[in-house]
Amino acid sequence: MKRAMPAALLPLLLLIACEREYAPTHTLVAITFDDCHESIYTHAMPLMEPYGFCATNFVNSGFIGLPHKLTWDMTEALEFNHGWETGGHTVHHINMPDCDSLTVDTEVRIDQLALIGHGLSHTSFALPCGHAGGRDMDIVLSYYRNVRTSKADFLYRPLDRTRIGYKGYRIQYSADDMIDWLSDGILAGADLLVVGVHTVMTDEEMAEEGNGVYKMNCAPQDFARLMAWIARQELQTVTISQAAERLTD
Ligand SMILES: [Zn+2]
Questions:
Q1: Any residues with CB less than 8 A from the CB of 57 and at least 6 apart, and which?
Q2: How many A from CA of 128 to the centre of ligand 1?
Q3: pTM score, two decimals?
Q4: Which end of the chain is least crowded, N or C, by CB within 10 Å?
């Protein structure tokens, strides 16, 4: 059966026409994924691959291989076949300020050793839930050079590689919310904008997993639209390590 294509396409065309366009700009974009959900491999990567986009994949080594999580094969493929960076996020996603020093040290160190054991990159770390006291930062920085926080800052050269903020995608957003934030950052002359994503799942998939709604989920159609917008602006994507190397003096 034939569909009325012009009517179906009109809202999309209007949407594209209304979006702000910025090419060319010097602003770099780093896409980061946290918490090693399998949808990073099954849904997000295939939507990035056509554009050649890279990302940094912050994993909890203790969760890899569990149901609905990345496997080590997937994690290795993202880095070795798709040019992504892998980073640490503690073994069990601990809330560091709630733990004693020995636990924090062990969680950070054992997690990094797992990355090393799989031949993966291990110079960038994301604070679990963005939480860290001064003691926790000292421990993290004894193992890692780059630290991603959860503060939605526009970032400028010279970059403080120990406090790289990000804008985390939340389930109540649409792609437009992230596009607006990126647009504001570009207009503010930011040198680096970091986009954070956790899961890329449909409502049906979230229901099937039975864990309720993921408050940081990005629906696949929104993720696809965000990637297409980044591509249209000709924004260059970089890993956190690449950003740190390029933007620190
Ligand atoms: Zn996390």
A1: 32, 33, 36, 40, 70, 75, 78, 79, 84, 85, 86, 87
A2: 5
A3: 0.91
A4: N
